[in-house]
Each structure stands twice: as C-alpha cells, then as structure tokens.
Amino acid sequence: SLKMASDSPESLMTLCTDYCLRNLEGTLCYLLDNETLRLHPDIFLPSEICDKLVNEYVELVKTDSIFEPHESFFTLFSDPRSTRLARIHLREQIVQDQDLEAIRKQDLVELYLTNCEKLTAKSLQTLVSFSHTLISLSLFGCCNIFYEEENPGGCEDDCLVNPTRQVLVKDFTFEGFSRLRFLNLGRLIEGVNVETLLRPLASLAALDLSGIQLNDVGFLTQWKDSLVSLVLYNMDLSEEHIQVIAQLRKLRHLDISRDHLSSYYKFKLTRRVLNLFVENLVNLTSLDISGHTMLENCTIPSMEEKMGQTSIEPAKSSIVPFRGLKRPLQFLGLFETSLCRLTHIPAYKVSGDKNEEQVLNAIEAYTEHRPEITSRAINLLFDIARIERCSQLLRALQLVITALKCHKDDKNIQVTGSAALFYLTNSEYRMEQSVKLRHQVIQVVLNGMESYQEVTVQRNCCLTLCNFSIPEELEFQYRRVNELLLNILNQSRQDESIQRIAVHLCNALVCQVDNDHKEAVGKMGFVMTMLKLIQKKLADKTCDQVMEFSWSALWNITDETPDNCEMFLNYSGMKLFLECLKEFPEKQELHRNMLGLLGNVAEVKELRPQLMTSQFISVFSNLLESKADGIEVSYNACGVLSHIMFDGPEAWGICEPHREEVVKRMWAAIQSWDINSRRNINYRSFEPILRLLPQGISPVSQHWATWALYNLVSVYPDKYCPLLIKEGGIPLLKDMIKMASARQETKEMAR
Description:
This protein has 31 helices and 15 strands. The protein is of the alpha/beta class. About 40% of the residues are buried.
C-alpha cells in the first residue's frame, strides 16, 4: 500500500491549495495600496479549506526557497464570517505575535505552535481569545512565549531577566480553558511554575512535559481519572516520580525516555519499576524507555532467550517484567538500550538499533520533536543502506525526506540525512521509486545545498544528484540546480572532490537540452565560471577531470547558442585555448573538447571574423594532421576551417598562411580519414552541416560536409538517417550532384 500511496498523484485539493498560495493575487486576493493583501469580498471559505491553506503556507515557507512569504498573510483569516479556521499547525520563525493576533476571532479547536521562537507573552494573551474552544494546544519549543518586554518602571527583585532585558511572566494560567484536553509544553523555559499554570484544567487527557525538570510531580494525580498519555522525555526521574506515575491508572501511553548523551543522570531503571508499571497501568499500550540504563538484569538467561521461534506473546517475553502484560504493547521504545537486541519482545512495534525495522520505527517516532535522537537513528539507517540492503526502501526514503524537511537548519540531520539519501537513491533501488518520490528527494537535496555551505552536506547533495538521470529528472528544477552548482564553483576556497562532482553535473545539465535552457544558464554566468576554473587549473599546470569537464561543458553550452559563443570570445576564451594547447600538447581528450567548442563558434557567421588571424588559422591548419582521439581533433579542426572557407576568398584577411595552401591541407586530411570511423560526437541537428552543401564558393567545405553526413548515416543509420530526412537533406544532396563546381568524389559520396 505504501508503494501505491507514493505513486498516486496529488489530490485536486492539494494542487488547488498549492496553486492559490503561489498566486494569491490572481486567485483569492487583491493588493490594497500595492502592499496589503486583501481577500476578495465575495469569497467565503470553510475551515476544511482555510486550515489547509494556512498549514500548507507554513510548509511552503519552510521548505520551498522560491516561495515568498507575505507580511499580511494571516490577516486574510481575521474575519470568521468569510474564512473559518479550526485546526492549524505553525512552526518556527514563520510566525510572529501579530500573526496570531490577526486570527484571534477564530474559534480554534487545535493549535500547534512548534519551535516558534519569535512569539512572546503578547501571544499568551492572544491564546486567551481561543480559550472557550481550544481542545488541543502545543507550545513545544516556544522558548520566549513567557517573556515580555521589561516594563519601564524597572524590575521587581524577584523577577528573572533574560539577556534581551525581557521579564518572565508569572501570572498566566490556563484559567478558562475549559475544553483543553491535549497539551504539549515541551522544552518550556525554566522559572515557569508548571503546577500553577495547569491547575485550572479540569480534565487533561494528554500532557507532554519533555525536557522540563520538575522535582515534584505529585500534582499530576489531580488528573488520574482522565490522563491517558504522559510524556516526560529527558526529565530527571526519582522514586517519587515513579510512585506518582503508578497512580495514573488510566495511562495508555507513557514515555519516560531520555537522550543518554544529554546529561549525567542518576536514575536507573530496575525490574521493580517495570513490574510496578505493568501491575498498575493495566491499560498501557505504548511505553518508551529509550536511553535508560538497566540497573539489574531484567532478562531471561541467554540460552533460553535464543530458543524457539521469535514471539511477541507476553508469556514468552525475554524481558521478565513484561510477562505480566495482558497483551502485547502496540509500541515499545528501546532505542539505545541493551533490551532492543533481545529475541522475544512483546510489542508490535519496537524502536531500537538492532535492525532496519527498529531503526525506521525510531526515526518515525522521534523526528518531529527529537532531532538529536533522530540524527543518530538516521546514521544507523545510513550504515544499513550502505552495507546491507534496505528491505523497506520506500518507507526509509519517505522518513528521511520528512526529517530533512522538518529540520532544515539542523546540521547533524542534514549531514546524516543527505548521506543516507545518496545510498537510498542509487541504481539498485531505482525500479522501486516513483517519479513523485524522486522529485521529493531532489527538492530536499536542493534545500540542503541552499541552507548549508558546509562541505560534507554539499558533497553528499552533489553525489546524490549524480544518482539521477540528468538532465531529464532535474528538468523541473533546472534554473535552481544550475544556480546552486555555479554558486559552489564560484566559491574562492574549494574542496577538490566537490569541484569535480559539480563540474561533472554542470556538464551533464547542458548536454542534450533545448537552446532556451542553454541561453538561460549562459546568462547566469556559466561560461565565465567555466573559464575561471580553466584559468585556475592552467595556473597550477594541471590537466585533470575538472579541466576536461569544463571544456566539455563549454562545448555543450555553445552548441547552436550564438550568445554563449560570443561570451566565450568576449571573456578571452581563445587566449585560454592557445595556452592549454601549448601547456598540454599530449592531452587528446582536452584537444577534442576544445575543438568541438570552436566548431560551435565557427558556425556563427558574425563571430567568424574574430577567428580570422594568422595565429588561429595556423593552429587550426596544424591540427588537421593531429591523430588525437582517432579522427576527432582533425575532423573538428577541418570543420572550423570549412565554415571559415565558406565565407569566400574576400573574407580571408591575412597574408599567411595562404588560402590555397590551407585548402590543400584540408583535402589531404579528409582523404586520410577512415570512412567507417566510430565517432565521439553527438549531433542534435545537421543544420550547420547542411548549410555547406548548396554553394560553389568552397568545394572543400562541401566535401567535408558530405563526408560528415556519409560517415554518420553509414555508421549510425538508426539514429541519423531519420534526422537527415527530417531536416531536408535529401533534396540538397540531389541538387549538389547536379552542380558543376562540385568535385567528382564529393558527388560520388553524395550519391
């Protein structure tokens, strides 16, 4: 079913929401005074649509670098008569006090504020506006929401002041929040009295106090008849805490897990504590004790442990206290504990580090609120993908994508996640991935490259892009990916390996794409960037892959693109060509790439006069005799000269060498080539060659063009016969056979 889910297209609702958000002015809104967004007066939207608009907006701002946030977006939802909100999830820096203030008239049922560090105590007052309807509230990681600006009258002695001269609010409580059942206060700032804050709540069902240190949790017993879920992640526990928890008999989900790296921790789990939970919390379906050290042995002897078929029946449990369970748990968190490696664990889902299933369960369970744990779980997945084979590929990919999106600014997750993606997208897994999923991978990879100038992330991201078919699979993000790669290549200090991969990608991106793409990339500074790289390599006297790929990329990007050819000449490309030729006389690949590029330049009539110097013509003439890379260097040199000859004797503005002498050398070169040569060249169009057929001014150019066509259609008939017919080559050849000026051998070949 996961396979099907990832393959199915987006719903119409999702597509429309996305379109409206990207085109607010053209759809739901108009601009007032050229700056404020206003809803059209005849628009009325129910909460199903408004919730999705707000939640998707937050997602887009967070994960799509091209999407521009709007100052006045939340004001569109200020009037419940035209727009209704019920359940919204806001994250991080996107939300400010005035945004919540704008929607205060809405009857919100569910409000999740996750890591919204810009919210201050002004927003606490706004929350009161929702008190009569709110059922679910999360303030996870909103570390400034209990701070207000310091009052001008100075500070009382007993108030805490944080570095920005803000004062901790002490008098706020959840008084009047009569319907509130689900509350997450994770990572609440120190100094707030949790007991006083919560006392007014009549019947809490779920409470999350992650990362808060409370020595006394006795007040929790006031909800012993209603509390079904309690999360105390990273709270320093003691015997008193355990006694209180044991009284909360309605609990179905209990999480007392911890990050074992975070701090010294006195409390150790014992057999007695687990027995206490099993005996008293009879409704328990989910328990998380990840990161805990077991003080004594809770397991059965290892001989017995290895026996029999793996079972989740409590009676057979390898962890003795769990033999008292009435039925297997739905979830048991054992990540970074020794217990996860046991054979018989009485739970349907276990988080741990023993195998792929446990690791994926861990990533799934902890991604949203515990990036510090998630990055270690992804690291384990990376090892599995690298060394073994992933059996739940789609799930693994989906989870890593979600983690990378959710924690765009977390360096550890970006490093481990981008490394895991490289292994999860390589060719052996290719068949199992839908287009939609591969698009998502590309999006998060590009996000990573944008947010992180860090070498490891950049390298991982570039390597991952190499797992895709280029340019086809990157077409939908063409501009963006080119901009990012050029950005990498333009940095003054460069990592050799990243430089090599980035140049390779740039080359692949401009190979076999439409001319408008090439022009766009040219305008981004592509030609200049490649020439700078060549310049650097020349200065170091090295001819490596970067040097060869850079020339190859220039060859590709100038193909039938006059603007880019002109840029090459304007940025002293010819000077670099001569210097490379002189510095690396033996490098055949390099010569081929450079001459291929000059062939493209020579096809542009307006630029040919710039090639008409004694120095250049001598160099091209001498290369006619080159045996480098089979016939390629000689063939390309002859091509360049054929276009120059085609301009006629009056265009020959130099005394040395003589035109006739060069023509003679061209005939000799063409006659020396093997007509059945296999080729290192790829034509998308014959147009520049066909141009040389219907003319009598330069028979040698005509002969070169005919030889080129004859060789290509005879060696690669399936590819080039259709192209020759499609581009009208047949009538041109027929006409040429009748021409008096054409040489006999040219006519023979044409026939």
